[in-house]
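Before drawing any conclusions, I looked closely at one protein, both as residues and as discrete backbone shape codes, quoted below without any editing:
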Amino acid sequence: MLDDANLDLATEAITWSAYGTTGQRCTATSRLIVQRGIKPALVERLLEKARTLKVGDGLQAGIEVGPLVNQKALEKVTSYMAVAQQEGVQVLIGGARSEEHPRGYFFQPTLFDGVRAGMRVEQEEIFGPVLSIIEVADLEEAVRVNNSVAYGLSSSIFTENVNAAFRAIRDLTTGIVYVNHGTTGAEIQFPFGGTRGTGNGMREAGQAGLDTFTEWKSVYVDYSGKLQRAQIDNRE
């Protein structure tokens, strides 16, 4: 996220992408790479939103953050709180199981600050409602940080600068790149898949899905009534 981004739009999109499906979607936002100048205002707004998120049964109206899928997932997300503490990360909000829902696999929406490139909480998939903030100086550093992890499925950039947006489109090495939109989701008309350690190199959905799920058959029909030679056999 660059200094010239639309704060209101970015706050809504980041909140949904990080917490809307409890961080359990492959395209969920787990890292927020933000330019230094806009970071204080953005963090303030993200905290304000996180405090109002309603955690509970996702089948009930008004609930914004549901449970983790099972006990194992809850234990995994919880274990990363100790990792964050060891790495000197600041927990701005959350960081524990939801006390309001002791019988389920509910975890509080969590926001980490002071995260640096290379930390475990930045490099590994926590797969829960946990968002790490990494501060950078400019777009070039943001791209380096984004591309430095083993995974490369979905990324996004928030900026009002069309030149910066197109540089990001060119340089971000992920299978999906959004401009002024959160990372979560996929459009069925476009190929879906990632790079590096994400996926198997194939693409699903869109026109690319035809190659993934079908086989080619070549058919030659000769209606001349005469022997036809293959192109390699024609010497004239």
